[in-house]
Structures are given as structure tokens and as C-alpha cells.
TrEMBL record:
Family the UniProt entry places it in: In the C-terminal section; belongs to the RimK family.
GO biological process, one term: translation
Molecular-function GO term, any one: ribosomal S6-glutamic acid ligase activity
Gene3D superfamilies per UniProt: 3.40.50.20, Acid Proteases, ATP-grasp fold, A domain, ATP-grasp fold, B domain
Name assigned to this protein: Probable alpha-L-glutamate ligase
Keywords linked to the UniProt accession: ATP-binding, Ligase, Magnesium, Manganese, Metal-binding, Nucleotide-binding, Protein biosynthesis, Ribonucleoprotein, Ribosomal protein
GO cellular component annotations of the record: cytoplasm; ribosome
Domain ATP-grasp: 265-448
Superkingdom of the organism of origin: Bacteria
Amino acid sequence: MTDPIRLGWEEWVSLPDLGLPALRAKIDTGARTSALHAYDIEPFGPANAPKVRFLMHPVPGREELAIPCSARIVDRREVTSSNGEAELRYVIETSLKIGDISWPVELTLTDRAAMQYRMLIGRQALTEDTVITPSERFCQPELSYDVYSSARVREVAPDRALRIAVLSREPNTYSTRRLVSEGEARGHTVEVIDTTRCYMTLNPLAPEVHYDGKRLPRYDAVIPRIGASITPYGTAIVRQFETIGTWVLNGSAGITASRDKLHAHQILARQKIGMPQTAFAASPKDTRNIMSLVGEAPLIVKLLESTQGKGVVLAETQKAAESVITAFRGLKANFLVQQFVAEAGGEDIRCIVMGGRVEAAIKRSAAPGEFRSNLHMGGTATPVKITRAERDTAQRAAKAFGLGLAGVDLLRSNDGPKVLEVNSSPGLEGAEKASGKNLSGALYEMIEKKLRPAPIRKPRRSKA
């Protein structure tokens, strides 16, 4: 026979599946249902398996401390409070732990900010073995709100379902489809948002992002897949999510800098990261001088916003280089002149960097008769083992741009690795297939670790 669980009218409890390790709860046998404090309540997920996300203030009087939670919805029920008001509430099921014993309970979600207790336990949540002693409190071991320090909460944080937006105009590309399928396989809700159909409300009190006539919900994370053709508007949308406070995989500043080849090379130079000798000027009279700064032909002439190998020309002689530069200037196009690393032999190394570490490296080889190794230009990819210097260079380059996900392209030169480009929206197809690694899964592991429910600490308002 199981020993009875003895409870007073007030007990310390925990809800481990929600990432709430310590709550003071009122035991109220006069109430039928149990209630948990929640605000910013948002349903999400598919209709056949709906979930709900909410924030929770676990410590009364400390509204600057909030814990993000999510759970599966089991019902939506009308509940009448003690003052006679009826409210339609979401109902979730989760584990309730008191002392060393835990069992599943149903909880209704409602705003209890004005209540003394963040949780009320009704008679439906009590087991047959429970004995209530109304005159006593804390019959079970007492806990402490000290567990809500960032480090301690992360230690006990559960795996929770996330709501993630992928900013992409191309839902059917390999990378976008993999991000959706992998995220859903891990229990998250992943929504593809067409960046150009977003618009913004600029408001100091409540900045918002709207989409197809509706305000977008609060996302746990945003994964930008911003195409080069819409960089200015796409980064403006990313910046708006940053303003709202949403965690963004790649920030607007990093995306903008990586797309501008001149700015990108200036960042690399500032961090003393190896790259091919590069020159830039605006005056047509400086053509020969620019070329002399870089070195002898052959030379690379590259548009500042080139992508996927487009807008990159190999000038094999000085005269050819002058002709290309003259042509680009005639089009009023901005460009760089760059050293051609002949010893690379038409090959480069693409390193996929996630969360500051190289997750995969592939060697891209140019097609016959082609100097560009981009896969979009007919290049081929094979797995490659990189050196410590190459790994360090790739990681430093991604960090210099503040990118959570980056494709860093390296050339193997006689004097060490040189960064050719840092891509803020690297394609996953070639890297996954060549390396045989589940890079989409690795990306979600990094996101999940980043978004485990550590406290959200809002700044306290100073008293006048």
C-alpha cells in the first residue's frame, strides 16, 4: 500500500516539463480545476496537434523575470472563477512534482498576476492518496526561488516545442524544405514567411511585423534566408524582428556586411584574417595603379554584390584586366580587383560554421575550363579534411560578422588559408550531400541549446 501524500494549504511544487523548478502553490479543494499563471498566450502548430506558448512570472512581485513555456493543448474549457466570471481557457497536461513524487495533472492557463499565488491546485489534480491538512502549510520539502538564476534554470530546462520562422521567398528550395522537415521532425512548428510580403509598424511602444493583413505572432527564433536581390528590404525586416526582441540566427548587420564585398573585406582586414590581396577605387584614372597594387595578371575583377559566382571575371592578361575594368566602369558598377591565387587550382574549401564551430567542410572543384568552383556554375563537391589553421580562419571569419550560420569559402594558398567570401545564407544541399552530415539537425541542436528557457530579464523601471 502506498503511503499517503500529506499536503498543507500551501506547498512548494515544481513543473519540470515546463522548466519551472520552484513555485509556491495554493491547495484549494473548493476549486475543481487547477490554474497556472500565464500571459502572452499564443496557440501554434498543426490543427491535429495544437500547442500553446506562454510566458510565466514565477516569482510574485518580480515581473522583470519571465520564463518562456510551451505545451500540448488537451482542451479548451470555460472556467468560472471565484468571483463568478466565466473565461475560456486553454488546458494543458504536464507533470506536477511535490517532494519526491510526481504525477500528470491538467492545468488551465490564465493571467494570475494580481493573485498572491502563481498556481492554484484544485481537487481534480489531487490523487486518492493525498491527505490535506488545512491548518498546516509546507508539509513537503521547501524549495527556493534562487533556482531562477540563468545557469541553474538552464541545467533543468526541458526540451520545449519552438515556433520558428524561416524568411525565404523560395519555399521549395532544398535548404528551406530541409529546415522545415527537420524542425517539424523535432517537434517544432516551422513557418516559411515570404520576406517581400512582410511590412512593419514602427512604434516605440509596440513595434510589429505584419504579413498578408495580419500581425505576425511572437516567434522563438527567425532563420533568415535573404536573397541577394532583396538585401536592403530583407535586412530591414530582420532588423524589425531584432527590435521586437526575437532571437535571430543571423543579424541584419552581419547579412548586410557580408553582401557588400568591399565592406566584407574591410571587416576581414580589421580582424587580420587572411584574404587575397584586394584593391578598390572610384576614379577611372586609377585603373593601372589599382592593378599594380594587387599584382601581375591574371587578376580577378569582382562586382561588390556578386553571388554564386556571377559578376566575377578572370582577366588573364593586363590588357584584358584593363578592358574588364573599363567595361564595369562604363556600367557605373562598383567592383574590386583581386589577386588570383593560382596555386588553389580552381578549388576552394566551403566551411559550414554554426554557433562558432565548423560543422562540415567540403572541397569544391571547378568544372573543366572554368575557374569558379561554385556548385551553381557546375562545380563538384567532395568531403575534405581541413587543417587547424583553416578551421581557425573559418571560425574567426564567421565570428567577425556575428553570424550564427555561415558558409566561409577558403582558398589554399602558399602562405596559408585565405578567405574568399563569407556567405550569410549558405545552401545546405551540396554540403549535406558531400559531407554526409545532417547539418539541418545540427543547426536545430544549436538553436535549441540557445533557446532553452533561461529567464527573460526585463530592465526594472526606475522610481521617480
